[in-house]
Amino acid sequence: MELLKVEQIEKYYGNKSSLTKAIDDISLTVNKGEFVAIMGASGSGKTTLLNCISTIDKVSSGHIYLEGKDVTTLKGKHLNKFRRDNLGFIFQDFNLLDTLTAYENISLALSIQKVPVKEIERRIKTVAEQLGITHVLTKYPYQMSGGEKQRVASARAIVTKPKLILADEPTGALDSKSSAMLLERFAFLNKDLNATIMMVTHDSFSASYAGRVVFIRDGKVFHQIAKGGDTRKEFFNKIINVMTLLGGDVADAI
């Protein structure tokens, strides 16, 4: 079942005297329950694509549909409500509030949605168990490791039960052990809870946890590969091969 449809979008930055085309006629679809990674060299347009899908950035032309609703037409309070009710965000730098505990950081979005207190408690208990962060719920961000902070940020993103989870370089600030642990949790959310995830990454190891990888070059879709029946190691090797063709951040990917 199609959840997301990106239709011939373009994104320009600058003015007439200095115009940069960050996205060049990209079209793609994501089905409900898919885990899709977006890869490409620095400056390829992968983060701009994610920002347009997340409505953080506006497209210059084209349309983006979520469950058939054209999100490129939304403005003001309607746009804010759409983000709040449909999207979950996970950023590289966590974006946790330092003055709130992990529990309070996670509960904030639910409080804004006016979810009853008992339901908030139930949902946070469930998501904390799923992501292995029950032991840090009473801690403040400065008391947590990088991996714990990212898992709390992930819990905050999924606790509202969004239709689409958008992750921008979620392992970028983590060590290898924390990265692997987070990605295993992503795989669990996708396979066991049918969460739909789009993740921008420069890292082939991270991308190998996805079910499909879309490669971006010069603002265009360069290639796509699906995991299918491959093992994660086999899929990783295929990703490396495409990244070699792409150039750019190959050394980082390896």
Which secondary structure elements does this structure contain, and how are they paired or packed?
Elements: E1 2-15, E2 18-31, E3 35-39, H1 46-53, E4 61-66, E5 69-70, H2 76-86, E6 87-90, H3 102-112, H4 117-131, H5 146-158, E7 164-168, H6 176-193, E8 197-200, H7 204-207, E9 212-217, E10 220-226, H8 232-246, H9 250-253
Parallel strand pairs: 3-8, 3-9, 6-7, 7-8
Antiparallel strand pairs: 1-2, 1-4, 4-5, 9-10
Helix pairs in contact: 3-4, 3-5, 4-5, 5-6
Outline the structure in words:
- By secondary structure, the chain is of the alpha/beta class.
- It has a single domain, classed as P-loop containing nucleotide triphosphate hydrolases (Rossmann fold, 3-Layer(aba) Sandwich), CATH 3.40.50.300.
- It is built from nine helices and ten strands.
- Strands 6-7-8-3-9-10 form a six-stranded mixed sheet, with helices on both faces. Strands 2-1-4-5 form a four-stranded antiparallel sheet, covered by helices on one side.
- The longest helix has 18 residues, at 176-193.
- The radius of gyration is 18 Å and the shape is globular.
- Residues 248-254 have low confidence and may be disordered.
Number of helices: 9
Q: How many distinct domains?
A: 1
* CATH topology descriptor: Rossmann fold
Number of strands: 10
Q: Could you say what the CATH architecture is?
A: 3-Layer(aba) Sandwich
**CA gyration radius, whole angstroms:** 18 Å
What percent of residues adopt helix (DSSP H or I)?
A: 25-40%
| Amino- and carboxy-terminal Cα gap | 34 Å
| Strand and helix order | EEEHEEHEHHHEHEHEEHH
- In spatial order, strands of the major sheet run 6-7-8-3-9-10
Helix/strand class: alpha/beta
CATH C-level label: Alpha Beta
- Largest sheet features: 6 strands, mixed
Q: What's the rounded overall pLDDT mean?
A: 91
Low-confidence stretches: 248-254
